[in-house]
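Appendix B, record 7
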Amino acid sequence: MDKDTDVSTEEKILISASKIFTEKGFSGTRTRDIAEEAGINLALLNYYFRSKEKLFEQVMKVKIVLLFGKIIPIVTNEKTTLEEKIDLASEKYFEILSKNPNLPLFVLSEIQKKPSNITSLIPVDKLLKTSVLMRQIQEKKPGLHPFHFIINFLSMTVFPFAGKPILKNLSIMNDEEFQQFVEERKTLVPIWIKMIVNS
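Structure tokens (predicted):
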């Protein structure tokens, strides 16, 4: 096999695995399902990824980095103010989650069922404990534990996407209404978060 074929086959497997794992979860997915989705035989899938566990780990790496990785340059930027970080982080999360609405539910549920070593993928200390963001929050609001800020921010941005199936199943919102709801939150969430740190 030439190198181009190898790369495209591996990518095809990862795309298919991502789709099937997201739909069925780790326990509900068979490697045969992934091979069928990728249009390859099971032996070829096993050639690239020795087991379902290895393939799942690779998919989770991509998903976790997608969910958390792009926020790191924002929160560690020494040159932006806290308010600018709030605007930039909100914009980035809504952009990522609008394109990948199943991402938060998949990552959260699979981490709970099958813990992954997130700290090996995301520098948690740099992101949460020693970041410029944390320092700026403490300077702006000395009495506020910075984790209140982090949890509120994540709740306001991530939960609507994680809760979308509930909204749909209860006939509260259809896809079009949900998209309009998300567009409104893009504007509202930065305002609400700034109110917390500026009140």
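Remarks on this record: Residues 62-198 form one domain. The longest helix spans residues 3-28.
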